[in-house]
Structures are given as C-alpha cells and as structure tokens.
Amino acid sequence: MEYGVSIFPTDYSISPAELAVATEERGFESLWFPEHSHIPLSRTSPWPGGGDLPKQYYDCMDPLVALATAAAVTKKIRLCTGICLIIQRDPIQLAKEVATLDQLSGGRVVLGVGAGWNAEEMADHGTAFDSRFRLMAERVAAIKTIWTESKPEFSGEFVNFEPMMTWPKPVQKPHPPVLIGGGFPHAAKRAIAYGDGWMPIGGRGWDVLETLPRFRQMAAEADRDPDSMPVSIFGSPDDSDTLKSYRDAGVARTVFMLPSADRDEILPLLDQYAASMV
Description:
Blueprint: E1 2-6, H1 16-25, E2 30-33, H2 56-59, H3 63-72, E3 78-85, H4 91-105, E4 109-114, H5 119-124, H6 132-148, E5 154-155, E6 160-161, E7 178-181, H7 186-194, E8 198-199, H8 208-221, E9 232-234, H9 240-248, E10 253-257, H10 263-276
Parallel strand pairs: 1-2, 1-10, 2-3, 3-4, 4-7, 7-8, 9-10
Antiparallel strand pairs: 5-6
C-alpha cells in the first residue's frame, strides 16, 4: 500500500515546493492538492463535512500551478489533484494543462476529479447542478480523447469540437490515471463506468472497508478487472491497526490530510505520519 498526503495550499501554509521536497524525503508516494476557484458568499450549499466551511476552502491556490512548482523540485513523488473540479474547467484547456505537467514532471501526474457540492460556485462557471454528473462523464471522455488521439474530435451533449491538433501529449500511456472521487455507491459506479480508480473519503459516517467487496463485485459485473481499479482512501487516521486493515483489504493508497499550516506545524506531522506507515 502506498501513502500520500493532501493539503489545501494557501499563502499562509507551507509552500507547495517545500512540502513536496519534505514528503519525497520521507518516503511518501504522492502529494495531493484540492481546489475551489472561489466560494460565493451566499453560502447556500451545505458543506458535506458538516458545520461551518473551513477557512482554507476560501483560500486555496490553483492545484495545477502549485503542483508545477512541486514538480520542479522533486524526482519521484506523484503529483495529484484531489479533487479537480472538472465540471468548472474547460476540457480542452485542462487536457493541455495536465499533459504539460505530465511532460514536465516525467510522467508523474494523477488527475483526481469530482463533480463538487457547491451549487453556487459551479453556477458562476455556467454549470448546472442537476446535470453536473453527466457533464463530468463527458469531459473525462473528451480529455482522454485529446490525450490519446493525434486528431481528436468529440460530439456530445455538453462538449463538442471539430477535429484538431493539440500537443503536448502526456508521457504516461495511454494517459495519466483519472480517479473518481466520492462516496458509495454513486461515485463508485462512476469510477467503474469511466474512471481508472476510486477515491472515497473516510470518516464521514460510513465504513469504506465494508464497501470494498461490493465495489469489486460491481467492477467485475461491469467487465472491469477489479485489480485494475485501485482504491485510494482519503482522510486516513495514522494508527497502525487501521492502516494494516486497509493494507490487508487491498487498498492501493491511503492519504493523510494535513492542515493548512506553516512548516513548523507541518514537518512534525509528516514525521508522525511517516512513522505510522506499515
């Protein structure tokens, strides 16, 4: 089982570059950045985590720009979005941005995507809340088409473009893995339908491990090889018993969540999490 860390990078937290170096030095496999372009002040949509929306949601940096700085100072660590709000991004431009990062990093990008929960935020991008999941599926398909074809074209309900040429293509073949974030069963079904893995969040009132056998059964029933559908659990505790249970259940990766804090708080936490890896 691999181990990663995730943080909302902000202008008051440890820099993405310094964090990347520190995580790579301690043997972590991956670094994950989420995104919110902005938070409308109306605050109508409830935060799925419950309670008040934490401050870092308002303050987080663009994940792809932050990951580019991390790429420049590291050699091995995987550079991951967790999650990229694909329903708020132009798919042609996003395909180029991710392919560029994959080229510059030597093939280290993982694109974790989701459809989001903040209806007001996505409305400012022209995205309708009710159709966001259909939009996400179509944009994933369009991006993969751009990455893998020399003269891609696409015709869908939301995404349409005539045959074109666009480079660079990603280093990874056939393309960087696209992981689908969210809960069970709906996000798990979406991961099986068009993703390269599933990213559930632990600690939100349900047991991820209890769902794994059913997830793998669903994958097999859809003619997807369960072994080709890795599960990455976000929000893992750092106790060895839980981590051993994840490992023994065949979880591919677990991701520790870091606060948006400065280096004096983050570096000891990285040491603590590194010591708990089993």
